[in-house]
Amino acid sequence: MTRRLLDLGLRVKAIEIDPRLAAALRKTCPEADVIEADFLDVDLESLMAEGAVVAGNLPYYITSPILRRLFDAAGRVAEAVLLVQKEVAQRIAASPGGRDYGYLSILCQTHSRPEVLFSVPPGAFRPPPKVTSAVVRLAMERRYTTWGVDDREAFLRFAQLAFRQKRKTLLNNLRTQFGREKVAALPEARLRGEQLSPEQLAALWLRLKADS
Known about the structure:
This protein has 11 helices and 6 strands. Helix content is 42%, strand content 19%. α4 links the parallel β3 and β4.
């Protein structure tokens, strides 16, 4: 992937945690700026110019932490094109009401407009994994600012709480923090978190916060 990006005439900064692979990359792709580090430890905002595009094959077991780091640096990232496990891609782009819709959907759709581009079969890898993969494109957009959310971290904690027990109603998931009486009075009280869009969930959080 690094070679193909370079062949397009792009400036590439490649982050590689494995010293052996980093050394091989410097040898085969001397034009690239190879950074030998753990992606989760890199200061992305200082590394990237504004409008950067992130491309990567994400280790499936740390997909969510990597996405969170990207969203933290979203002010400099224009878009991300990522290879992930297909089920994760479906969750990222899921619509409200579907079985794949959950907190990961909220997280990604709060910071971007996701689009699943295509699937990648196990045979495309050496050695082949046991799962099908997919390429997802995240067009970065701080959508939460247009919803009136002024505290991103607090809203994300609220979203996690709304999905704490996915099959439970919002009344059951939110009553401990906001009080049963207050939540029960809401029109959405008997709904589940998965029935609300990210924007609707933000509106609900703003109402509860205003009444606190």
